[in-house]
Amino acid sequence: MYSALNQRYAELDRIPKEVVTLVMSELPTPRETHLFINGDFTRPAQKVAPGTPVELPPLKVENPNRLDLARWTVDPANPLTARVTINRIWQQYWGHGLVQTENDFGTQGDLPSHPALLDWLATEFIAQHWSMKAMHRLIVTSATYRQASIARPDLDLEDPLNKLLARQPRLRLDAEVIRDVSLAASGLLSSKIGGPPVYPPQPDGVMTVGQTRRSWITSLGEDRYRRGLYTHVWRSTLHPAFAVFDAPDGNTTCTRRNRSNTPLQALTLLNDQQFFEFAGALSKRVQSEVTSGLPDQINYAFRLCVSRDPDAVERQRLIDLFHQQFAAAQGSDAARRSDAWLIIARVLLNLDETITRE
């Protein structure tokens, strides 16, 4: 009898447990909320009720709850949500928003450089049912965005910060995207979407720097080559390749990333373990996919990294570098060729144009 019951208990214990989570619900009667005298919770003053700033539309119900606040946030009559969101999207493409103070649309913030454009984009955002994809498409297909980034001497004094949008700005890519570009050029990039975070290679000892020592078990297989978006991030200990390219940590809110330019960035692209691996894969890809000669291989590798063909001077420099490295290498011709191509690939992944959006 006991054996049968124990076996039945074991069977039931193997049934997956239901997932539970905490939920919030409104009280039948909202509790009273007061202002406190000098912030002292033992000295309540006048009673206050839910409301909105007088400069913005009021809530439309007498006793609003969280759902009413959510509806008010995306109400077309509320001018703030759409404008702030569009400004953030614009900032990603131009390096700065139409309102420079992207986290302050109040009286102490900057005025918009193109108020009519900001208003139109905000109303179009609402008309497109808050579709961010539609707004991205609208911006990147515009004549303004498709301008060349070549500097214009006639604007150096009149508009040095390019507030008039007379040309496309050159912006260094974000840290995660730099990894993605190198993965794509090398042919290693995984197209897998979703799933838990991954642990790409990083230097030994990084996880012992913070207050708490943590393990970092490098991912294998496809997970090793996931997009930078999926890299696991500890709040105070960023992946070094992200930190060097100005990715923010998790300790403070970041509304706009800085863009620095340091020698450590070039050294990371040249010598970091994962970028060295990307360069090796890029060199093998070029040699296997193009067999019509060195000039064509150079063209193909250059195009994979910067999305254009090299000019005559650039091509010749890379050819000369290949021959120099081939002559200096040792071993069989195949080994020397592989070593020379590895150097070429490391150079190409280290180009300013490879990690810069033109």
What can you tell me about this protein's structure?
The chain is mainly alpha-helical and 358 residues long. It has 3 domains: 33-73, no CATH class; 79-155, no CATH class; 173-358, no CATH class. Helices cover 41% and strands 4% of the residues. It is built from 12 helices and 4 strands. It has a two-stranded antiparallel sheet with strand order 1-2. Strands 3-4 form a two-stranded antiparallel ribbon. The longest helix has 17 residues, at 273-289.
Mean pLDDT: 90
Reported for the largest beta sheet, the result is:
2 strands, antiparallel
Task: Please bin the fraction of helical residues.
Answer: 40-55%
Give me the side-by-side strand order of the main sheet: 1-2
Write down the secondary-structure element order. Answer: HEEHHHHEHHHHHHHE
Calculate Rg over CA atoms. 28 Å
- The fraction of residues assigned to DSSP E strands is under 5%
Assembly context of the chains: single chain
The tally of beta strands, per DSSP, is 4
Spans of 5+ residues with little confidence (pLDDT < 50)? Answer: none
| Total count of domains | 3
Annotation field: number of helices = 12
Distance between the termini: 77 Å
Give the structural class: mainly alpha
What is the general shape? extended
